[in-house]
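Q: I'm teaching a short session on how sequence maps to structure, and I want students to see two examples side by side rather than one. Could you give me a first protein with its sequence written out and its structure tokens following it? Keep the formatting plain so it prints cleanly on a handout.
A: Of course. Example one:
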Amino acid sequence: MTTIFVVIICTNIDFMIKYCCKQIAKMPKNFLKEIITEFNLTKNEGFVLDTLFAVSETKVIPLARKTSLPRQTLYSLLNRLGRLGLVMESRVGRVKLYSSNIETIENALLHKKNEIEKSIIKFKEEKEKIKKESVENQNQKIAIYKGKLGVSYILNEMTKTYSKNKAKTFRAYTMSQFKEGFEEDFKKFVETRNESNIESRIFVPKGTDFTKIMGFNKYKREFKVLDMEDFGCALYIVGNKTYLVSYRDNEGFIIENQNLAMFLKEIFDIHWKSIK
């Protein structure tokens, strides 16, 4: 999120503080969520800070009324927010006044923005790298995909095949459970097959806990257990393509060859019939 603070050059400092606090109060709630996440704030700390956004400066008693928090608790929360630089304390005579520290908040969000921009650049670089490797191997009908983004692409590519009704069966040698970080990709893949009434036959390694398999009792699939270890790898045969994926290494291949796919399907079907 890009946060824009309008700085008004004027001699009335109190007016400037009130103006900035009103601008913050108008910002979406996900603005506050970013601050809570960035500074690891508790629910009450976030609540107090959110309340301070709506005012310029306030004493503890009015703040306690607005938040319905005991004054002792409120002092403790304000002290921690002060140590984090999110709240400023000032005095008028013997009276303490509290306000949100706009400069610290702005710097935190700018830091977050820079991190996001760096992530976007890295994402684009990885995407271009994947495209390049795919094009280099296109003439050979073998595409290599690396990294989490590459494996995600393979899963989505199979999903598209079934969504376009280009295949009617699904054959797989796979892992004992879904790989962390790919939950959404797997869920979409499984749901698309189920919606298209795809016949799914899946070999899994010994020790598979079927209660941890996504939608085990919900989706139409057949499973058979093989007496082998879980290597964190999978082999999928879909249409005229064969997909080989090592989830432990975040690396995979797509081989587009009709004859090879038919050969592997035949082997798979013979294997399937031999296992009870």
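Q: Perfect. Now a second example for contrast.
A: Example two:
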Amino acid sequence: MATAFGDRIQELREEQEMTLEQLAADLPITASTLGQIERGDVEVPSSDVIEALAGALDVSIQSLIDRLPESEQDRPVLLELLDDDKTSRGRETKTFPFEVKVGDMDAGTFEGYASTFGNVDSGGDRVISGAFTGTLKDFGRKGQLPAMVWHHDWNEPIGEWLGMSQDSKGLPVSGQLWVSGNNLGKASIERSEQVRNLLTSNGPKGLSIGYEVEKSKFVNEGENGKDLVRNLEKITLFEVSPVLFGMNAEATVTAAKAASFSGALPERKRELEKILRDAGFSRRDSKRLIAGGWAALVGDDEAALKEALQDLSNTINGG
């Protein structure tokens, strides 16, 4: 009997053109057991299998747990996995300036755009229209929305989102801060009061999304095709944060550029993998590249090898 979890695993595996045997090689189970999971014969895999699947398929643990039966999603061992997953290397943030549209700021309500479509940001990324469709549907099935925290700090929840959707411009959101006089009857929080002051001030401010890229594609643009742009086609949201705009606008490319400018090679494979991940490579391709060089990605095609090396140089050095 097919399950949402099994169907998702099969979909991800086929998107990455992997056989059952190839995927199982990175898992603590056999290809036969993996096939049973995809068919739904195994409805709820163990936590270590879920964690390994997320790593091998380069997706968040949250996105897989969301496909389990609701009665299983609150198991302590899975909640512990999610806590660890909040610091995973695949997590990224992206900040957008915004003009606050006050609904009733005395009560702490506001709205703005958490993301906009079509423009290339300073990190070389472009969010493609519709990129949030899947993640919004996943939250909708559970009657939830992403968390609202201060500056991506999960230890500082400051309110909750009341609405989140997509339109032709991007991702419009409306939110409620937990301040005195709020419309939800929630206790006020000191940090929320500070954020209310920030949003009504004349200083720089923005909304920033905490997300993981599920599907992306690099394209060459600009004069003579020298500008490498990463199109973000499918995104999983975790939280949306009010922030001081500009503080971390280029955080996702800092590590890669620093490695290039210093001229020093990373001391450990894990450090090199992080640099490649920050440069836009998937976890799977990063590991393949480290283990087997560019030939592991492009084979013996010399032209493809030269193009891949140029892409890496452009990505790390910003063009």
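Q: What should students look for in example two?
A: Point them to this: Residues 4-85 form a domain with the 434 Repressor (Amino-terminal Domain) fold (CATH 1.10.260.40). Also worth mentioning: Residues 29 and 276 are 28 Å apart (CA to CA).
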